[in-house]
Amino acid sequence: MTTTGPLETDNSATDSPASDSPATGKRRDFLTLLTLAAGGAGVAAFSWPFLDSLRPGDSGAARPPVDVDVSKLPPGQQITVVWHGSPVFITHRTPQALERLQQASLAARLRDPSSAALQQPPYAANWHRSIVPAYGVVVGICTHLGCVPTYSPAPDPTTPVANWPGGYACPCHGSKFDLAGRVFIGAPAPYNLPVPPYAMPTPTTIRIGANPPGTDFDFSSIQQI
Amino acid sequence: MTDAGSRDRPDEQEKAGLVPWLDARLPVVSAFRREYVDYRTPRNLNGLWNFGAILTVVLLVMLATGIFLAVNYTPTAAGAFASIEAIDRQLPSGWLLRSIHVTGASMFLAALYIHLFRGLYYGSYKAPREVLWLTGLVLLAMVMLTAFAGYVLPWGQMSYWGADVAGKAVDAIPGVGPWLEHFLQGGDAPGDVSLHRFFILHMVLAFAVLGVVGIHVAALHVTGSNNPLGIEPRGAGDTLPFHPYYTSKDALGLILFALLFAVVVFFLPDVVFEAENFRPANPLHTPADIEPEWYFLPFYGILQSVPSKFGGLLASVGAILVLFLVPWLDRSPIRSARFRPLYRACMGVLVVCFVLLGFVGRHHAQGGWMIAGRIAVVYYFAHFLVLLPLSARTERGIVLPDGIAGAGRRGA
Ligand code: HEM
Ligand code: FES
Fold it and tell me: Which ligand is nearest to the CA of B51?
């Protein structure tokens, strides 16, 4: 063990670096600057894991595809499953409902009847916005400000709007969608309801989150959720 | 009608600028300058005086990583283990935060033992530093409790059975033991209630430690540091300003310590992680080899060397309590062991006994270990209760140096 301090002086006045000659003063300034810079870099590097841990987690591992068995779903009914933390509506559409979806008078009341905006995978860019006409699969989040629209499948002459063909009505600011999730003109929502990537490994199984073989669609590329 | 002392009159003495303005109202700048820049420090402090600064920095690192772990931790018996696994495997950089926190616990206790040894060896507990010593011991007790509570949180096999064995130790207290165990545990066995209590205890104590460190350092700055010679500085020539001399010495110590820390975190995680604790808690199956973390082993060794359940508990708690009496057990006016030949030899034996007790704890005081353990326990207490008070009598005709600067270079 040795004594400390580079200066072996007994006079306290010379202990202070301020009284050094200008030449050593400059060298000391440089060393001080270098030390502070190295210390600053160290602190910045050390703060990285802390900030990193605030980042949302590894999505791939936390979001596996969801298999839904629709063999017990009667025509005209809908179930809601959770995928990526969002509600996904799976609807068994009746033949009458499918007929109404194809009427030209309905198309005239829709903002985007032919699904031109990228709100669905290419394999769902058709009049029924799905892989097979009988089953509709849409993300149940209103494209206006994110409320969950209400399922009202029965046609009605007056409610919620005149000549209602059946579809979804948003409780928040009155946006309307048909049973294929296409938005009506005159409502605040700008886009059709998004269709998630999904596949049908069997005629009555819907696998949300996986594309059919041979296709490739990235859900994050859609216009708006 | 003039009021000379009134603050209403613009003060001509007051300097311009935000910093002098603030300093005139809350003297943080001048206090910092007084306590950490100009502060006079003995010129001969050796590397053992780095550990206070090291402990302070490690404490801040523990609090920071602890907060970020707590954000992702679930304090329930059903969810705790899975949340820790998720921190290790899913949370970005979670493995690193956890590894730093777990390694930090071991490094903290190691630095604490060195810091305490320094105080014993150089007589830093003697007048006028008794309160400083006592606040340090309170910190030791608080840190040990915090470390124990933290070890329970992952709710692995070792966590669970550690909590269970600690409960059984409380149970050994005559009379109130069983009731107290049931009360503290909040049930018949460690479970949801105990885990939640351990979690809160761990967080509250950790921040309380920070507060007590403030008191500890305040007490230090009243008396100033002791030094390896154990004599008070005689004049300005015996001291140096804290900055730049000890800021740079502390920085060097911190860098070396951080290097060792990083080596354990990145290359030797097995040293601080216990494999058995990666199995979820199972109240129906005790692990084959149950032992506490290394820093509790000497006390575990004392517990097992004493042939009575309650006696063992008393002895291991007493091993810490006896330290509180040290300033009054030691009658010698000489502080540093450098000038106390008998005490110096006794300190060497004490360290050997303490380490030996750690090994005894590991080997469950079986066979030869039990004999060694009993000898070590007897020495431990004899050191403080007999040798320390008596050693003063052997110190005759010792001449202490006449000031630090004049003492020159010497061995420890
Ligand atoms: C949370 C734990 C602790 C922290 C952060 C801490 C911090 C410090 C700091 C910063 C110093 C001044 C630098 C130095 O002398 O190393 C110091 C000095 C001291 N500490 Fe601690 N300490 C802690 C625990 C303890 C313990 C467990 C003891 C033992 C009972 C203790 C006894 C002392 C003594 C006697 C001094 C003065 C040493 C001298 O001047 O010779 N401290 N502490
Ligand atoms: S959120 Fe649906 S209409 Fe505004």
Answer: 1
Q: What distance in Å separates the CA atoms of residue B361 and residue B368, rounded to the nearest whole number? A: 13
Higher pLDDT, A19 or A156: A156
Residue B159: the pLDDT is 95
A130, A195 Cβ separation under 8 angstroms: yes
Check if A216 contacts B (Cβ < 8 Å): no
Task: Output the pTM of the full model.
Answer: 0.81
Residue with tokens 């290790």: B88
Contact call for residues A5 and B245 (beta carbons, < 8 A): yes
B221 is in an annotated binding site: yes
| B46 and B162 part of one domain | yes
The pLDDT of residue A25 is 79
Give kind and range of the element (H or E) at residue B169: helix B157-171
How many structural domains are present in chain B? 2
Residue B76 lies in a domain: yes
Q: Are residues B262 and B302 in the same domain?
A: no
Asked if the A64-221 domain carries CATH number 2.60.40.3880, the reply is: no
B75 CB near a chain A CB, below 8 Å? Answer: no
Residue B384 corresponds to which tokens in the numbers above? Answer: 């403080």
Q: Among B275, B290, B305, give the residue marking a domain's end.
A: B290
Beta bridge partners of B40: B241
Q: Whose CA is nearest to atom 1 of ligand 2?
A: A145
CB atoms inside a 10 Å sphere around CB B208: 14
Domain coordinates of chain A in residue numbers?
20-53, 64-221
* Interface touch B409/A35, C-beta < 8 Å: no
The answer to whether A218 and A120 are in contact (CB under 8 A) is no
CA distance B156 to chain A (A): 23
Q: Which among B43, B228, B411 has CB closest to A5?
A: B43
Do B106 and B242 share a domain, yes or no?
A: yes
Is residue B300 within 8 A of residue B313, CB to CB? The reply is no
Residue with tokens 């003039």, as numbered in its chain: B2
* Inside any domain, residue B21: no
Are B67 and B119 found together in one domain? yes
Q: Which of B72, B90, B97 sits opposite A62 (nearest CB)?
A: B90
Q: Check whether residue B225 and residue B367 sit in a common domain.
A: no
CA B403–ligand 1 middle distance (angstroms): 24
Q: What is the mean pLDDT of residues B150-161?
A: 96
DSSP state letter for A197: P
Binning pLDDT at 50, 70 and 90, where does residue A14 land? very low
Q: Between chains, do B45 and A4 touch, taking CB under 8 Å as contact?
A: yes
Question: Mutate which of B72, B84, B245, B252 to test chain A, going by most A C-beta atoms within 10 A?
Answer: B245
CA nearest to A85, candidates A222, A223, A221, A219? A219
Between positions 250 and 279 of B, the ones with CB within 8 A of A are 251
pLDDT in tens, A116-135: 999 999 999 999 999 999 99
CATH number at residue B200: 1.20.810.10
Q: Where among B270, B290, B310 does a domain terminate?
A: B290
B101 has binding-site annotation: yes
Containing structural domain, residue B143: 32-290
Identify the band that residue B289 occupies on the pLDDT scale cut at 50, 70 and 90: confident
CB contact under 8 A, A4 and B90: no
Query: Which residues contact ligand 1 via a Cβ below 6 A?
Result: B 49, 51-53, 55-56, 59, 112, 115-116, 119, 122, 124-125, 129, 132-133, 136-137, 139-140, 143, 209, 213, 216-217, 220, 225-226
